Amino acid sequence: MADCLSLLRQYNVQKKEIIERDNLIIFDQLAWPKHVKTNYLVFKGAKESGPKDYYMLESLLFLLKNVALSHPLYIQRANTQKIPSVKLPDRKALLAYLNGETEASSSIDKSVPLEMAIATPAPKRHRDNTPDAMKKAKLESKQILEEKQRLAAKLSAPKEGGAITDQIRSLSEAMSVEKIAAIKAKRLAKKRQTIKLDNDPNADQRSFMDSELDLTRDVIKKERHHKTRTNVLLSSGKTFDNIVELLKSVKAREEGRTGNTSGDMQKQAKPVRPYMQGGLLSIMC
User: Fold this and answer.
1) Rg of the chain over all Cα atoms, to the nearest angstrom
2) Residue 276 has pLDDT above 90, yes or no
3) Is residue 35 a contact partner of residue 58, using CB atoms and an 8 Å limit?
4) Percent residues over pLDDT 90 in the chain
5) What's the pLDDT score for residue 285?
6) 212-250 burial by CB neighbour count: b if 16+ within 10 A, else e?
7) C-alpha distances in angstroms, 123 versus 24, 30, 126?
8) Which of 37, 62, 273 is nearest to 281 (CA)?
9) Which of 81-95, 137-151, 264-278 has maximum average pLDDT?
10) Regarding predicted confidence, which is higher, 241 or 7?
11) pLDDT tens, residue by residue, 50-85
């Protein structure tokens, strides 16, 4: 089974989401407590002594989230959040392993027993414990209880106005057969008028056509005729039967005027006669 350090490296290389919830660090279906120890050894100087110490899973995840910070700023932020920080001598080799640059590290102790993972629990529902929320919940529960009591009272109460079987008589004793038949016929006629038959497939179509026909009739009644370019030339009081004779007379008049103009021009033209005067030939007009 995979250990938390290997899963942390795998999820970091593959850029998968690591969830922190309810003091757990969750890798999909597996989860570990935040303060669980990994098998990565903490660096110790020559003067330091004592048993081996290992980094917590929370410390390594916090380093990955703040890897862009310089080491002094990273330590300051870790101390603010009360998270044990990674020492500077371990930082470079640890990041190289977690980023997938190296396949193994000399600081990983494979002989130490590791804590087993647990199944990822469902997220807890956070209860609102504010005074307003508690007052609202109490009021709602009180209203629900009152509604339940009112409904139970209605169901258990005897029905008023129910049918009294002792006073019921046969219909044939109260009415005659003819009156009963008339009531049945009247009821059947009313049902035929109010209920549409299911086996009539054209009922909807006929009703639609009737409504459209009524609408068309209303439009035609309100229609008014206006003049157009064609009917404006039509005259109701005058006729143009003599238009042909009128045009012929105008044409004859124009032709007569043209003939008179040519005759006048011929009258104005005089013949030229030559004669001799003093030995010179003159032209007399």
Assistant:
1) 58
2) no
3) yes
4) 29
5) 46
6) eeeeeeeeeeeeeeeeeeeeeeeeeeeeeeeeeeeeeee
7) 11, 14, 9
8) 273
9) 81-95
10) 7
11) 888 999 999 999 999 999 999 999 999 999 999 999
The contacts of residue 68 (CB under 8 Å, 6+ apart) are none
Reading phi first (left if > 0) and then psi (alpha if -120 to 50, else beta), residue 86 is in beta
DSSP result, the chain: ---HHHHHHHHHHTT---EEETTEEEETTEEEETT-EEEEEPP--TT--SS--EEEHHHHHHHHHTTTS-HHHHHHHHHHTT-PPPPHHHHHHHHHHHTTS-S--TTB-TTS--PPPEEPPPPPPPP--SHHHHHHHHHHHHHHHHHHHHHHHHHHSPPTT---GGG---HHHHS-HHHHHHHHHHHHHHHHHHS--TT-TTHHHHHHHHHHHHHHHHHHHT------TTGGG--SS---TTHHHHHHHHHHHHHHHHHHHHHHHHHH----EEEEETTEEEEE-
Burial 85-96, CB ≥16 within 10 A → b, else e: bbeeebbebbbe
Question: What pLDDT score was predicted for residue 50?
Answer: 80
The residue type found at 241 is: D
Three-class DSSP labels, 153-209: HHHHCCCCCCCCHHHCCCHHHHCCHHHHHHHHHHHHHHHHHHCCCCCCCCHHHHHHH
Chain-centroid distance, C-alpha 241? 72
Work out the percent of the chain whose per-residue pLDDT is above 70.
66
Residues in a beta bridge with 118 = 31
The tens digit of pLDDT for each residue in 236-269 reads: 666 667 788 888 899 998 888 766 655 555 555 5
CA 214, chain centre distance (Å): 39
